[in-house]
Amino acid sequence: MAFVLQSFKSYFCSMEQSVYDLLMSKSEKHRLEFLPHISIDCVVFGFHEASLKVLLLKMKGEDTWSLPGGYVGKQEDLEEAANRILEERTGATNIYLQQFKVFSDPNRSQHFFAEMPDALWHKQRFVSVGFYALIPYLSVTPVSDEASDVCLWCDIHDMPALMMDHQQIFEGALLSLRRELTYKPIGYNLLPEEFTLPELQKLYEIILGRKLNRGNFYRKIMAYDVLDKLEGARRGGAHKAPYLYKFNQEKYKAALHNGFKDNW
């Protein structure tokens, strides 16, 4: 959830009055623009240098990290709101976006706001809708919001502690991505346009959290018939250059719609 604070006392003592005024002024603006009691939290995945990344925000003046999030406009549906939030944080459009779970624990944010003014928009109970997104790492420039110092990519195996229930939301998104990987193709939104089979296998292994037999992987992925083999090969290594591939967009979209019969 956007603008979540660790506690009113600790944060108020460390922040300038202008920041507090900003939060209070945002409360009035939010009441006019957004639906009450419902928020969106987004787990944004990217893949770079054989590592799966997740996009995180660090709050101003605090060692507090969160997922990108926000609220639903009064004239928006959930996906429109999620796309708007992600475009604000990444500049990306036409994002692969998947709703995966609703987080409705009545105490999910209670202790963060217990001592804050009742007039603050963020103090009300929010049910959060979780989305995960797959974004080409090199195509976006992360942008922080008004309550954050930075917005940056973190390796999923080297993440800082997250506020509230955001760790649970992240873990739920990763589990959903793993489940989807078993019956749908993954990679078009994470890999560069041209890639090698070892690079695709590495992506699958990182998401699944386990090693895959190379021969079995190659046979299965080629049997799915979603790849086009290119004329060129990846140059520069000491060993035989691996062939380059790209996804056949028409077949890839059909596989997303119809799914695969076999899983990993």
UniProtKB/TrEMBL annotation:
Superkingdom of the source species: Bacteria
Pfam families in the cross-refs: NUDIX, WHD_NrtR
InterPro entries: NUDIX_hydrolase-like_dom_sf, NUDIX_hydrolase_dom, WH-like_DNA-bd_sf, WH_DNA-bd_sf, WHD_NrtR
Sequence ranges assigned to domain Nudix hydrolase in this UniProt record: 35-176
UniProt cross-references to PANTHER family, sorted A to Z: ADP-RIBOSE PYROPHOSPHATASE, SLR1690 PROTEIN
Protein name (record): NUDIX domain-containing protein
